[in-house]
Design a protein that fits this description.
Length: 118
């Protein structure tokens, strides 16, 4: 199993920045990719950014150029640097790990709230 703990959410004004962190523990060698998702009130959870074990990244169109996903393998932590935040970025952000585990191969953190005021 993999455990994920997020931190770094908060309240920020539009145009500001936040950095989210996600620390992974447990069977970390089974992780093939990590990602950040978000869920705004009344909306479905959506992928924000993803990074593979090989370092390949991809981003949702809405955050491309503003958000950057990165990782520090030495401490098993993935980051999401969020710049130029907009009110529509307000959501609960979740860390996700895709693994080779079986039968469960997908793990989620508890979520961290990001609120952007106009």
């Amino acid at each position: 199993q993999v455990q994920l703990v997020e931190s770094g959410g908060g309240l920020v004004q539009a145009g500001g920045s936040l950095r989210l962190s996600c620390a992974a523990s447990g069977n970390i060698f089974s992780i093939v990719a990590m990602a950040w998702y978000r869920q705004a009130p009344g909306k479905e959870r959506e992928l924000v950014a993803r990074i593979t074990s090989g370092g390949t990244t991809n981003y949702a169109r809405a955050v491309r150029g503003r958000f950057t996903i990165s990782r520090d393998n030495a401490i098993n932590t993935v980051y999401l640097q969020m710049n130029s935040l907009k009110p529509e970025d307000t959501a609960v952000f979740y860390c996700n790990a895709e693994t080779t585990d079986w039968p469960q191969n997908n793990y989620w953190g508890q979520g961290t709230q990001v609120a952007v005021s106009s």
